[in-house]
Amino acid sequence: MYKNIKVSLICLLAILSSGVAGQKNVYSPFARYGIGNLEQLGTFRTRAMGGISSGIRDNLTLNYLTPASYSSIDTTSFIFDFGLDYGMIRLKGDGLEYTSQDMTFSHLMMGFPIMKGWGVTAAVLPFTNGAYNISFESPGTGVTGTLYENHIGSGGYQKVLLGTGFRPIPFLSAGVNVFYVFGEITRSNDFIFTGDNNYFNTRKQSSSAMNGVGVDLSVQFMMPISGSRFFNAGLTYTPGYNMNTSNDDFILRYSNIRTNLLAFDTLSSSSLSTTSRMPQSIRAGLSLGKQDKLTAGLDLVYTNWSKANFPGTIGTFTDALSLHAGAEYIPDKYSNYNFFDRMEYRIGCRYGESYTLFGGDNVKEYGITFGTGIPMRRSRSRISLVVDLSTRGKADSEIPGETRISVGASLNLYDYWFLKRQYD
Asked: Of the four, 27, 204, 287, 422, which is 20 to 30 A from 43 by CA?
């Protein structure tokens, strides 16, 4: 037990020293709109199964997307889970290709029981990513010459949550997450006259900082079937909530000749404190299978983005629907002879719609996922691996085609922390 505690603390300190709230700097033009690109949700176990969660209950892992599942945590256990995620994006459009890649923190979670059928979980997660870098040239007039535009975005928003799940009767569990979203996105737009250094260039720079509190309300129905089979169904509702917002805008003028900071002349500046509105969302799904052998599930997520409001951002918001399906198979969880029989094999797929309109249309995203859970020797802990391949947009249209690959690894530490010693 103490060895696992030391490993947990070392890993936690390593993550904190590198910046828990760090954003993945994988540039995507879709991040220019609204609050940026939404991060893929779920632990690496559920992400490898296409992102399902509503019917998932497991006493070895944490499922923060469905807080009602926290009631499955064992009464003598403590679960600690953290992961790292590598992402690479390849863009195609207008006969050009561009590749961006980065690796960063994915999640940090811990869960423990209060009593039998009552568990608590805390987590730190990335929420959105606002990184993009777009450059292009446009012909100017005979006086000014070519105009070069450079649009850069950075930052994003994070989420911290604390939740609990309680099972009042054998076949029903209810749970709630209280979460806090915070962060800042900075956007810079440069308009540069390349034909003559005597012209003054213009930079429009803006930043939007937001913070607010919301809740997830969740229920799960569990139906055991003969032969260790099961059927679970779940529902999670997130009401809309307000975000305190601070927008700062600057318009600067500068020359190509002088590159130090004193060369910038502020033409105008403004600050505005306002309120943004995050949309309501509902997630519903089910899972069925055989205990310690097979789990298959399906989720549907609907978010009312058309009711969202983010002052200081660009984009037209529209309701978005996503579908998730996946499965997990374990050949022989308790095999003493074959290590590969004890491994967990996962596969899934998903379909999603963008929450902003591009050219008047939703951008459709299609993804396939797969991964594995590797049990650690003489322990209920495990290492989870996930590979997520997705594509959206079309390279032969006004919307660029984007292909994304994400590879993640997480360490799920499970320990018995509440057993009373029989001997000193």
From this structure: 27
Backbone angles phi, psi at 323, to 5 degrees: -120, 140
Q: Which of 204, 202, 168 is nearest to 186 (CA)?
A: 204
Q: Would the pLDDT of 424 be above 90?
A: no
Mean pLDDT of the chain: 88
Tell me the CA distances in angstroms from 181 to 39, 71, 148, one per residue in order. Answer: 13, 25, 36
CA distance 45 to 106: 13
Q: What is the pLDDT of residues 275-290, one digit of tens each?
A: 999 999 999 999 999 9
Evaluate whether 70 touches 163 at the Cβ level (below 8 Å): yes
Residue 193 lies in a domain: yes
Residue 70 located in a structural domain? yes
Sign of the torsion formed by the C-alpha atoms of 222, 178, 303 and 322 = negative
CA–CA gap between residue 406 and residue 85 (Å, rounded): 7
DSSP string, 179-247: EEEEEEEEEEEEEEE-S-TTSEEEEEEEEEEEEEEEEEEEEEEEEEETTTEEEEEEEEEE--EEEEEEE
Strand 96-115 and strand 132-138: pairing? unpaired
Whether the full predicted model's pTM is greater than 0.85, yes or no, is yes
CATH of the domain at 325: 2.40.160.60
